[in-house]
């Protein structure tokens, strides 16, 4: 199984990813501790009681990483050559432990690479929602995507695998 090659991306297409994940207090504490983020809003229940949230808030970088990962198997598994940047990262609604998150991606734009003949550039908008369909995260990401071998691609990680995710899996 592989993600999409550059030429398979359709501008305007929306993908509702099939994965969901309930986030736990342990996820938040571990991620926050591993990244040396000492913000008590994420780690200290007594401190958090006195905030506008009344309880610990999930680390937003964990949220970005989790929602950013929902698309991988469906869209970029083995076909991405790297991230070129993130833009307009927003967290319009808080995330708390016990929330169940899901993601959607829209293909915003794409163009051939000006410096590499084996790849193209794709603009993605990734969105995360909680179990109440509240938008909890939105970002724009730019990725360098491999072209298929038939179109000059040379990514060795996917050269032997010609099986894309099926349309039923993408729906």
* Sheet of most strands: 5 strands, antiparallel
Alpha-carbon distance between the two ends? 16 Å
Alpha-beta classification = alpha+beta
How many strand segments?
A: 5
CATH topology (level 3) name: Thiol Ester Dehydrase, Chain A
Whole-number tally of structural domains: 1
The oligomerization state is single chain
CATH superfamily: Hotdog Thioesterase
Please give the CATH class: Alpha Beta
Would you tell me the overall average pLDDT?
91
Strand content: 25-35%
Helix content: 10-25%
Q: Could you list the spans in which at least 5 consecutive residues all have pLDDT below 50? A: none
Q: Return the CATH architecture.
A: Roll
> How many helices in DSSP terms?
6
The SSE string, one letter per element, is EHHHHHEEEEH
Q: Taking strands numbered 1, 2, ... along the chain, how are they ordered across the largest sheet?
A: 1-3-4-5-2
Shape designation: elongated
Write down the Rg. 18 Å
Protein name: Acyl dehydratase
Domain MaoC-like: 11-117
InterPro entries: HotDog_dom_sf (IPR029069), MaoC-like_dom (IPR002539), MCH/BMMD (IPR052342)
Region (Disordered): 147-171
């Amino acid at each position: 199984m592989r993600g999409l090659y550059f030429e398979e991306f359709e501008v305007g297409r929306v993908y509702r990813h099939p994965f969901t994940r309930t986030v736990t207090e342990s996820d938040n504490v571990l991620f926050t501790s591993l990244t040396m983020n000492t913000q008590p809003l994420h780690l200290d229940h007594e401190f958090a009681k006195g905030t506008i949230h009344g309880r610990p808030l999930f680390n937003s970088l964990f949220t970005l990483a989790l929602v950013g990962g929902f698309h991988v198997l469906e869209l970029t598994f083995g076909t991405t050559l790297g991230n070129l940047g993130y833009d307009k990262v927003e967290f319009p609604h808080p995330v708390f432990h016990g929330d169940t998150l899901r993601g959607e991606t829209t293909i915003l734009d794409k163009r051939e690479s000006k410096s590499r003949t084996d790849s193209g550039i794709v603009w993605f908008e990734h969105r995360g929602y909680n179990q109440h369909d509240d938008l909890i995260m939105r970002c724009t990401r730019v990725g360098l995507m491999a072209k298929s071998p038939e179109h000059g691609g040379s990514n060795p990680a996917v050269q032997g695998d010609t099986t894309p995710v099926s349309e039923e899996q993408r729906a």
